[in-house]
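Archive transcription. Copying these from loose printouts into the bound notebook so they stop getting lost. Printout 1 of 2:
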Amino acid sequence: MRKAALTILLMLGTAATVDSAPPRILIASDSTAANYASDQFPQMGWGMFLGCSLDPGSEVINRARGGRSTRTFLSEGLWSALLAEIRPGDTVLIQFGHNDEDLKKPQRHTEANGEYRENLERFVRDVRAKQGRPVLVTPVARHAFGDGHIRPTHGDYAKAVIAAARATRTPLIDLDADSRAFLDKQGEAASARYFMIYAPDDHIARFPEGHNDTTHLNELGARATARIVAHALAKLRLPISHHVHPDDPGAAVARGNAACG
């Protein structure tokens, strides 16, 4: 009886420690969420600004890395390194797809309904084994318009994330759909200002002759996308949701740095 009582007390103590610990979010993703140095400005990832929508004391551990697919995130040991950081109760956001889709780089490419989905489901199992809380995230939309409206570009990859979430009963943020809705509302011309799309007249030091990258986010796009993620996260009814206080994505303002405010 004493042994059983001691075990219960230890379990209660562990639960109390988890509940009282500052909330943490870990991000496993690609260049659209990654951190960037000042010399790479104006390119930024949404993971750099997610903490701006969290309670003070909350922590975002951004392990997103440019150019990675689910396959290379595993093969390069990035996933193992992230798993080693997980504490019980941590939330882990998992967003891949842009590089899994890349047919031109076979070392990255995975089939949507094959290796890609299998890797996502493995990520979910691994996080749960560490007593973390996985959240699957469809890839953020590209700036691709036709007939005045944004076009979906992730196709079967976005569908595979949704299917993996259903199969594993994992919370889902449909960032593809949410970001497309946001960009479509802005319109083709206005929404271009969220991406690495510049004309020579914009006088961007890195791109004196202009730039036309319809995939990667600039500072304004990263701030707005972080708010879109935060809005969705707040609605998931997870423990972390109580610590999320998102602002309107359309109110994001570029400030020339990675600070909140």
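Printout 2 of 2:
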Amino acid sequence: MTTRHRYTALLLGLSFGAAAHPAFADDGNLQASLEELRHVVGEWATTTEEIDPDGNITRTLQGTYRFDWVIPDRVLSGRSDVPELGRASAILFYVSETKDAIEMVSVAADGRLWVMTGELGGNTRYTEPYPTGDGGTGQLRFTRYNVSDDSFESKMEYSSDGGNTWTEGNHQVFRRIR
């Protein structure tokens, strides 16, 4: 393991020891999450529909996502760009052996770090609860679905009541560019 990879592993709190890999590879849920990582490697064109609380599409944006391996079968680095908004985000997408989870971390120019965590083998990830402007508790939920070789969809939902109810905030369609 190179110094750069060791540093990345330490930052993510992951263990990539040779002894851990074979036992880890026998888990069907792990294999499903590794297939998800393998599937998203490459470049994707995205169409994002922003949705208001009444379910109406308020804006449609075009963008791209790109994912490349940092550590094969464990960690992807990525970038999201939405040219119309002049917005870019840096992404890490990885399998956490110690948490028995798949996670995605995203940070944009505003410096806000979002960590989305889901069960291995699952298609839904959640952010940690966060305080809302009105003194409540918010949380985001992301679900991936309609997966094929060259496309998939994702929806982001939000809750402002501690996860009791969820409202769709956006819908994304990903189409493989390469």
